[in-house]
Design a protein that fits this description.
mainly alpha, Multidrug-efflux Transporter Regulator, Chain: A, Domain 2, DNA-binding, about 5% strand, two-stranded antiparallel sheet, homodimer
Chain lengths: ~140, ~140
DNA sequence: CTAAACCCTGTAGTCGCTACGGAGTCAAGC
DNA sequence: GCTTGACTCCGTAGCGACTACAGGGTTTAG
């Protein structure tokens, strides 16, 4: 009755790479599935759901450890979800910090871009890396 | 005359971890330095400068391979800096893409945050991971 | 002279996969 | 029954950018 999937079918169904599925099993994110006589893994619908959960978590930037924790929380129907909420908030903060980081990089890089000197020794871009000064700084050379 | 640095001094001077310096040497970013009779590395001021260049590149998010390329360009005084500029532009695009990515994550996570159900089975947060639906979706529960 | 601080090499761990090699298994067509 | 091709198995190694040992040798200050 219950439809069984081979690992290839599970991969197609869940959108998770086949080798990644085996990796998740080794990592303890997926339980060890039943096996056929010849040792082939056999999965059920619930595994598709679990894998999609994991995939979605990855798309949202959670680490595998965080996803493991979320899965454990989801499996405990009577535990409060405050912990899950805390995980989300921490993760949000990490993402915001990362965005700040990248925006700082972007701003600095934008200042460097557009140098078209014909000689590397006058390239404000390479100089900027050298000296932390940018084209627009006091002793800038014409570029 | 030329002040020589041990690896520890170079580390303090450049702000790059001592083990990382050795790693950069193995990776071909730093030339192999002179050695004392007992095998200790001896560095010069130019190495401090080179390491700072690398550090600055890392702060701007360049990969070690990209930094290697930039260093090569900086060492070629007569080559045009157009190549360096292209590297910077490509890197800028990658950063912008990454920011977009993170902002998408942030937006989705923000929708999930704030659930305070007392039971995981009603936690919109975990459900959202399960079903791709969020609290604010049609069948949202009071939270 | 001794102890602390430094340095050496080589190797293994992190994270989240991905890719291989070399084997065994299964289903379909002839 | 036999072949072919697609699938699966396992174990291991690679990526990038470090970081952290272990188990030694060296230098320096008191």
């Amino acid at each position: 009755m219950a439809k069984a999937f081979t690992i290839g079918a599970l991969s197609r169904e869940s959108g998770v790479n086949l080798e990644t599925i085996r990796f998740y099993e080794r990592s303890g994110l997926l339980p060890e599935p039943l096996r056929s006589a010849s040792g082939y893994r056999h999965y059920q619908a619930i595994d598709v759901r679990r894998l999609r959960f994991i995939r979605r978590g990855r798309e949202l930037g959670f680490s595998l450890e965080e996803i493991k924790a979320l899965l454990a929380l989801a499996g405990e129907p009577h535990s409060p979800c405050a912990q899950a909420d805390r995980l989300v908030h921490e993760h949000l903060q990490a993402i915001e910090a990362r965005i700040q980081d990248l925006q700082r990089m972007k701003a600095e890089l934008s200042k460097l871009a557009g140098c078209d000197s014909q000689q590397a020794e006058h390239c404000c871009l390479l100089e900027a890396l050298d000296s932390r000064e940018c084209c627009s700084a006091g002793d800038a050379r014409p570029s």
